[in-house]
Amino acid sequence: MQTAVFFAIAAIAVASALGLIVRRNPIHGALFLVVNLGSVAAIYLMLNAQFLAAAQVIIYAGAIMVLFVFAIMVLIPGKEETGPDPLRPFRLVAIPFGAFLLVEILLMLVVRPAPPREPPGAEGGAEAIGRLLFTDYLFPFELTSVLLLAALVGVLALAKRKA
Amino acid sequence: MILLVPGSYYTGLSAVLFAIGVTGVLVRRNPLVIFMSIEVMLNAANLALVAFGAQFRNADGQVLVFFVMTVAAAEVAVGLAIIVAIFRLRPRLSVDDLSAMRW
Amino acid sequence: MDFPAVSLRAILPAIVILTTAALVLLLDLLPPRERKGHLAVVSLAGVVAALLATTWLWGGESRAFRGMVVLDGYALFLDLVICYAAGLVVLLSMDYLRERGLESGEYYALVLLATVGMMLMASAGDLIVVFLSLELMSLSLYVLAGYFRARLASGEAAMKYFLLGAFATSFFLYGIALVYGSTGTTNLDRIAASASRDSLMMVGVALLLVGFGFKISAVPFHMWAPDVYVGAPTSVTALIATGSKAAAFAALIRVLVTSLRSTQPDWTVLLWGLAAATMTVGNVVAIAQSNLKRMLAYSSVAHVGYMLIGLVAGGVFGTGAVLFYLLVYTFTTAGAFGVVLLLEHAGGEGVSLADYAGRARRHPILALVLSLFLLSLIGIPPFGGFVGKFYLFGAAVRSGYIGLAVIGALNTAVASYYYLRLIVYMYMREPEGVEAVSTPSFAGGLALAVALVGIVVLGVVPTPFIDLAQAAVTPLLR
Amino acid sequence: MSTSVWLIPAFPLAGALVNAIFGRAIGRRAHWVAVPATAAAFVAACVTFSGVVRGATYTGQLYPWIVAGALKAGVSVQVDQLAAVMLLVVTGVGFLIHVYSIGYMQSDPGYARFFSYLNLFVFSMTMLVLASNYLLLYVFWEAVGLCSYLLIGFWYQRPAAAQAGKKAFIVNRVGDFGFGLGVIWLWTVAGTLQYAEVFARAGTLGRATATGIALLLFMGACGKSAQLPLHTWLPDAMEGPTPVSALIHAATMVTAGVYMVARSHALFERSGVALEVVAWVGGVTAIFAATIALVQTDIKRVLAYSTISQLGYMFAAVGVGAYTAGIFHLVTHAFFKALLFLGAGSIIHALGGEQDLRKMGGLAPRMVPTAVTMTIGAAGLAGVPGFAGFFSKDEILAAIYDGGSLGLWSLLLLGAFLTSVYAFRLLFLAFYCAPRMSPEAAHHVHESPTVMTVPLMVLAALTVVTGFAIGIPSGEGTLFAQFLAPVFPPHEVEHGGFGAYALLLLSVIVVAAGFLLAWLLYATRPVAPEDLGRPRTPIHALLFNAYYVDRMYDAVIVRPLFALSVLLARGFDAGVLDGAVNAVGRAVVAWAQGLRRVQTGYVVNYALTMLLGVVALVGFLLSR
């Protein structure tokens, strides 16, 4: 039963990811990405990471995707990738290479010394994460604020009207 | 809600998503879609982090994911700003058009 | 909850720079709104203050924030390199931006924020800190590369740098995830203690190398470099070529030799191949270039190959040689790009080889200075480049990598061709067309003077610096 | 003595700096700085030499330059008998050529620049000789190369000069690549680069190691001293001003290789094989270059190939262990070859820049001092008995004969014959047969000013005297050999006895035969200018084109490398045409067309290459 649920969600995740890279219309792609992010959030729930699942939905599916959709709307209203593609051979070569990479990573998972067979679980509540954030991970946490500042200044530099 | 699924299933799924993201970066022409494929890659990495964290039964993996989300948000902001800046100069939006510098 | 002690001392140089960045942003809002020259001066003062802080902290070693930050001799040495790079770039930017009417607080703030990222990369004690500071540096640089918004080339550079950089970062992050999966931690010391060598670890190492390889522009992850170097504002190019490379090397070396020591035999072989490919491709392709910035880009790719030799050789000697070479390389490359910047036309032209024909006639001093930098890049004594190469190749031979040393030495012979061609163009060709004589500003001249003194001092009295470099890496290798 | 040693390089360095910094203000008066600087260096060298004659040697260190663990390489000098002789030659000949340059460069716009470079060269060369460790030797080895490059390309307005300068530099880099590796290898096995310590430990090195190191060092010598197969730069280097050719490309810098091998004899002897290689490369080069010199029509190129050939003799000598003979030939060669070059310069000066032997002839009555001194120089080169070259060359031949290497000996004997032929050919064509220049050119012929002819006379006197003064063999060897005895192991050569006299007679016969042949060909009947330099037989064509070595290098190395670069640039990376296409040849263009499809500049290509790298890296590490 649980395995079935997992596979169902996994199938949705994979299908939506494939949809993103196959569909020509970027708006469709964005929607597929939303689905993908949502299904990954569901997987987080299965892993008992409730806080992350919520954050995933709020930050990714909520904020980031809105930005994406906004950009798509502003930049190329409804436009698809059209016209002949002179680089098609290249793009097709990428597929076997991607597949090869997948095989390598799966191989890595197969040959690794057997991971614990028992079902995983962790304390995934907001409290545990918060505790870590403000103790062990205090420095990276502060660092992200600098990172966001840099992003802010950067966007400002690029978007200021005066050229 | 704890479901009893072996840990390697999660990492396997993450690998598949990662490979799809990689392929997406290469097969698409629209920088926005390429960028979204990169988001898929980041997500796959996040999934792996959470899955491994669960195996070790520590929350470090989840904290890392939290940071990655922040980074992703910052990256999106900057990335979209760059794309918009280019769009002002050249309305067609395909990475193939950006090949003035080569050889 | 027991909060970790907030030890500002351990991140003092970075804090100084960060404060300066905030100050610059603040001052940008105050009058005078038209002239921005003072912002550069403030930035420079901040960099100098960080430099002083670094020397003040010299000799100490501390860990802070639960092992997230390590301030040891190694980090301080690289802080020094990064500060020099940032300082030179600020100096070079002053008139370069003013002449183009593009001075702004954001520019200097971003340069400083990138510098903060670089410094933290050098003192990161945890993979997540490496990741975050790498991103801090990269995001700032992506924007800076596209800073000349009116130029399509600049936008193209930013876009390529950003997309490929984000691509590489994703691999890097997946590598972190795998290392975490193998060891259960991202702390560098604890990873070292686990001494894991399972398949997750192996692939994780490979992916980490991809991420670092991109930032240092090692073949085959170097393709972005020539395009970005050409398209970006030349001052930013100088920063990307020096500071960001130094920072990436800093993190790479610390991660490899401290936490991934258990896999040393594996990555050594990999780096052997990367080093050989990087220097050969860099040098050979540089021959065919006619755009100076592009040529220097490939040249800097080649120099990364030389530095990887030292990493392959390993030990105090090899790793110390890399650090010393980084120092020399920073001065030389910043100087070479500095000359190119000063001779560049307002529209970004004037960087082709043909434009340099007869430059010695119009700009005798700049041509001479550029020639000296080029001679250092070739590895002609008495400049730092010679001593640096001597140590690198010597380290390789000492560790038994004679083949690699031979490839390296052959490469320097090939490289002399294209550097020399530029000198020949400057001195032995008649100038084409009429060209306004621009006099280098005080700031630009100062930057070149500092860089020049740097390569001469490093070439003539290298011993104290070599001692410093070796002392810096010794604790890592314990 | 310590002061005088340090003053030798200090004076020229100061002179170079003064002329470099204040050159504009000094202008035409540059020689008032440069010539006294060299003269002072010569005086200091004389003082040092007299000290050495009294048996004193000197070692000293300015400061420790590189200290890395066990390796200590300082800016340190040593003066022994060998160094003292070299210093005397460098500063002495250097001084004469400085004086000569006052006249020769008189109207050149780059007067101060020229003297600055020349002084810089003297500084570098004296430091090269003084260096007491391999690293410092390497540094100044590079420095003299740099000066040579600057001076070859001195008239950079001429594309040929710029090209030649570049070529000299790059060919030398190939040699230096070996040299550098040899030095690094030596350091790793011996743990030091200080001469004295290295030679003390030479006996402990493995034979294979010693051979490898010695051969790498010799590779550097081949580049610097223009031995096969790295000789191609020297003839082109004749694009530089003639005083430069005399000083750098005949008398001093090109002999640095010989000096280095002689200096490192302990290493080379440890190997044995390496010495053999040195001897044979020298011997083959000697005859190879001599044959080319036979047919060249440019007066300076004849002398350039002659220099290559004579350097071959020196290497052959040191290769069989006859170090003193090699160094003696180095000294005498410095005199007579500098003389010949300066004389050639005087002719070129008189003819308003004409270098073509076909357009000379009959100059002797118009330029008596030049003709007389050059005749002496040619006699010295050919080895006419009584002149310096006779003594030194005979010593080499005798040593090789004694060494039992009959093949090498006969090769060099044949070389002596050829030397005699081309030396006298040059003399006859320039001075003694009927004039072949245009009437108005003939009208303008004039003797050079005194400031140029006096150095010629001094060098001619040296060419006459040196052999008698220090080259006459006695029971204990020549005076010269006795002086150098502390540096080199004794080399047993039978002097006197029937064998020795027979050898002497043989070489006299050979020289005479060469003279006769040249006489018959060029002096007894008028020479039609068009007959010279137009190859009629395949062999002549082969010689005239210097065995096509340059073209071969171009086809085998230069073009493929360029092609590879472009290919990598467009296919793998992306290149820039820049006229490169012209140079690359049709095959590559075809390649490039095929690779068109692989156009780049595209993000997808870059990402794909990265993915390739990822897959390779992951695969590699996963498989371990």
In short:
The complex is a heterotetramer of chains A (163), B (103), C (478) and D (624). By secondary structure, chain A is mainly α. Chain A contains 6 helices and no strands.
Features:
heterotetramer; A: 163 residues; mainly alpha; Four Helix Bundle (Hemerythrin (Met), subunit A); globular; D: 624 residues; two-stranded antiparallel sheet
Distance between the termini of chain A: 60 Å
C-alpha-based Rg of chain A, rounded: 20 Å
Oligomeric description of these chains? heterotetramer
Q: Largest beta sheet of chain B, briefly?
A: none
How much beta of chain A, percentage-wise? under 5%
- CATH architecture descriptor text of chain B: Orthogonal Bundle
Strand content of chain B: under 5%
The CATH superfamily of the domain at 1-79 in chain A is known as: NADH-ubiquinone/plastoquinone oxidoreductase chain 6, subunit NuoJ
Order of helices and strands of chain A: HHHHHH
Biggest beta sheet attributes of chain A: none
Count of all domains of chain B? 1
Number of strands of chain A: 0
Radius of gyration of chain B: 17 Å
Write a structural description.
The complex is a heterotetramer of chains A (163), B (103), C (478) and D (624). Chain A has a domain at 1-79: NADH-ubiquinone/plastoquinone oxidoreductase chain 6, subunit NuoJ (Four Helix Bundle (Hemerythrin (Met), subunit A), Up-down Bundle), CATH 1.20.120. Helices cover 75% and strands 0% of the residues of chain A. Chain A has 6 helices and no strands. In chain A, helix 1 (2-22) runs antiparallel to helix 2 and helix 2 (26-46) packs antiparallel against helix 3. The termini of chain A are far apart. The mean pLDDT of chain A is 82. Chain C has 478 residues and is an all-alpha fold. Chain C has one domain (8-477). In chain C, strands 1-2 form a two-stranded antiparallel sheet. In chain C, strand 1 and strand 2 form a beta hairpin. The longest helix of chain C is centred in the middle third of the chain and has 32 residues, at 152-183. The mean pLDDT of chain C is 88. With 624 residues, chain D is mainly alpha-helical. In chain D, 72% of the residues lie in helices and 3% in strands. Chain D has a two-stranded antiparallel ribbon with strand order 1-2. The interface between B and C is large, with 46 and 39 residues.
Task: Outline the fold blueprint.
The complex is a heterotetramer of chains A (163), B (103), C (478) and D (624).
Chain A: H1 2-22, H2 26-46, H3 50-75, H4 88-111, H5 126-134, H6 138-159
Helix pairs in contact in A: 1-2, 2-3
Chain B: H1 7-27, H2 31-56, H3 60-89
Chain C: H1 12-29, H2 37-57, E1 62-64, E2 69-71, H3 73-99, H4 105-122, H5 127-145, H6 152-183, H7 188-194, H8 199-216, H9 224-231, H10 234-259, H11 264-287, H12 292-313, H13 315-343, H14 359-362, H15 364-378, H16 384-398, H17 402-428, H18 442-460, H19 463-477
Antiparallel strand pairs in C: 1-2
Helix pairs in contact in C: 1-2, 1-4, 2-3, 2-4, 3-4, 3-10, 3-13, 3-18, 3-19, 4-5, 4-10, 5-6, 5-10, 6-8, 6-9, 8-10, 9-10, 9-12, 10-13, 11-12, 11-17, 12-13, 12-16, 12-17, 13-15, 13-16, 13-18, 13-19, 15-17, 16-17, 16-18
